[in-house]
Amino acid sequence: MTLKAGDKFPEGVKFLYIAYTPEVANIKACGIPIPLDFDKEFHDKTVVIVSIPGAFTPTCTANHIPPFVEQFEILKSKGVDAVIVLSANDPFVQSAFGKVNGVTDESFIFATDPAAEFSKSVGLSVDLPAAFGTRTARYAIIVSKGVVKYIEKDASGVAGSGVDAVLAAL
């Protein structure tokens, strides 16, 4: 299945994440991964999913995620209830990536798509060399009340999945 604008967001999607709390704010502190049930948490909300092939990689760290962090208040002012940064990395790496980016808002979530299963199921995975395996591709999705309003996959760069494109689509 290839997901496109106008489609109903798939049901039963679950990611994993470590919720931010002051007790696990230190980069060396580890929380416990918990499920993020998309249907339960976001069925009546507007959510931006921004996917990256890997935390701490050059483009993701320098160009892709920091602008979302910097413009989070603008995203919220345009009706976004949550931003989910998604990667096939494990939830501990994703949690550390959020901490390094200075994110402390519970509605800015660094989650994992285990084995890129969700991304594969909607045609948004990428096969990288064996050392990396199958990953989430670089993409952005805006889901509003269970319907995909915007979806863009980038083959290179962040033109379609970056914060400017997402803001323009809101």
Automatic annotation (TrEMBL):
Q: Which residues form the Thioredoxin domain?
A: 3-170
Query: Which species expresses this protein natively?
Result: Lipomyces starkeyi NRRL Y-11557
User: GO biological process annotations for this chain's record?
Assistant: cell redox homeostasis; cellular response to oxidative stress; hydrogen peroxide catabolic process; response to metal ion
What is this protein's function?
Thiol-specific peroxidase that catalyzes the reduction of hydrogen peroxide and organic hydroperoxides to water and alcohols, respectively. Plays a role in cell protection against oxidative stress by detoxifying peroxides.
Pfam families of this UniProt entry?
A: Redoxin
- Homology family: Belongs to the peroxiredoxin family. Prx5 subfamily.
> Which UniProt keywords are present, listed alphabetically?
Antioxidant, Oxidoreductase, Peroxidase, Redox-active center
Instruction: Output this protein's name.
Output: Thioredoxin domain-containing protein
* Gene3D superfamilies tied to this protein: Glutaredoxin
- Look up the domain of life of the source: Eukaryota
Q: Name one GO cellular component term.
A: mitochondrion
Catalytic residues of the enzyme: C60
Molecular function terms from GO: thioredoxin peroxidase activity
